[in-house]
Design goal:
The chain is an alpha/beta fold. The protein has ten helices and 16 strands. Helix 9 crosses helix 10 (298-307). It starts with a strand and ends in a 7-residue tail after the last strand.
Length: 329
């Protein structure tokens, strides 16, 4: 039996890193770059929520017919391209570009431009239909490059925001027929299926393409500190309280104590170490850990690292501990 979601909708590493900076309490509130990081986080989260909202609609598709991949990122001609949702069946493939933009979207034919009007302000944005069309073109080239059977590749821009209105100039059917609201998505897919009834892929080729897509998928792992021109020294050190988010907790006889909410924990340092792996680098030394946790004891730092069963390289004195592979997705 086929599995509908071959790659489920999950939060990107970029958003996870932004969350650690903001909600993890690592970036001081009064840092000059803080508002810019907040704006980036809100924008990325809006996009993710839009993509997540489609899971409900897409789950209505029959398991025995479709493969669905979220956020597939592939290398083609030296550059990566990423597809919000890729839907694959034996007769065709469908690229979905998901937009969660509030306001009024207007597609103008004469100048082939798209504008968004919100709170009385109008600005030009990238044409999402042309974006989806380009992704479909790249996917077609990628499949050909990997000797896959040629199939029709369609593309749709899905508006996931219920409050958004979409307008278009007359005679702009080449654009509007590639747009739908999320509640109309299944009907749109059914329409495409009705026009593409001839099977191009047998079960074996379908499974081969599925394995190939999953094997070649390369998650984006951005250097978020570099993006905002931040150095590790600008981040707040210390163990974060998991309840009130206060930094730093104090270590007393092997137990972390929060001076604000009085929480006590034996393992509060683990999320802090994982935050370090996510934001700074995928390895850490004993000295770096002591600076991070704001402790002086070499033996306690060593105990923390060994108890996490982290992979390591080097001798005891020069040992480097590494981020576990399952934390690098």
């Amino acid at each position: 039996m086929m599995r509908l979601f071959c790659k489920e909708c999950t939060m990107s590493l970029r958003i996870q890193k932004l969350e650690v900076l903001l909600q993890g309490g690592r970036l001081p509130y009064n840092h000059p770059i803080y508002p810019e990081v907040v704006a980036e986080y809100k924008s990325r989260m809006a996009g993710y929520r839009g993509e997540k909202s489609l899971v409900f609609h897409l789950s209505m598709l029959p398991d025995e017919k479709y493969y669905i991949f979220h956020g597939i990122r592939l290398l083609y001609h030296g550059y990566y391209f990423q597809i919000d949702y890729l839907i694959l069946c034996s007769a065709f493939a469908l690229v979905l570009e998901v937009k969660n933009i509030s306001g009024e979207l207007k597609f103008e034919k004469d100048f082939n431009q798209t504008t968004c009007k919100k709170n009385g302000n109008e600005e030009r944005i990238k044409n999402p239909v042309l974006q989806a069309k380009l992704q479909a073109k790249k996917l077609k080239g990628w499949l050909k490059e990997h000797n896959c059977t040629e199939i029709p590749i369609h593309y749709i821009v899905v508006n996931s925001n219920e409050k958004t209105t979409i307008t278009s100039s007359s005679g702009n059917e080449q654009i509007t027929r590639h747009i739908c609201n999320s509640e109309d998505l299944i009907d749109k897919i059914d329409q495409i299926a009705n026009f593409n009834k001839q099977e191009k892929l047998d079960s074996k080729e379908m499974k081969r393409i599925k394995r190939l897509l999953l094997a070649k998928h390369t998650p984006e792992n951005p250097d978020i500190l570099k993006q905002f021109n931040l150095s590790p020294s600008e981040l707040l050190p210390g163990v974060k309280c998991p309840i009130c988010i206060y930094v730093p907790m104090n270590l007393h006889h092997g137990t972390w104590c929060c001076p604000k909410c009085k929480l006590k924990s034996k393992t509060a340092h683990i999320p802090t170490i994982n935050d370090y792996f996510l934001l700074v680098k995928p390895s850490i030394t004993n000295a770096e850990l002591r600076e991070l946790l704001q402790i002086d004891s070499t033996s306690i730092a060593s105990k923390f690292l060994t108890s996490m069963k982290l992979p390591f390289t080097g001798t005891y004195r020069n040992r480097v501990y590494h981020q576990p592979p399952n934390n690098q997705k």
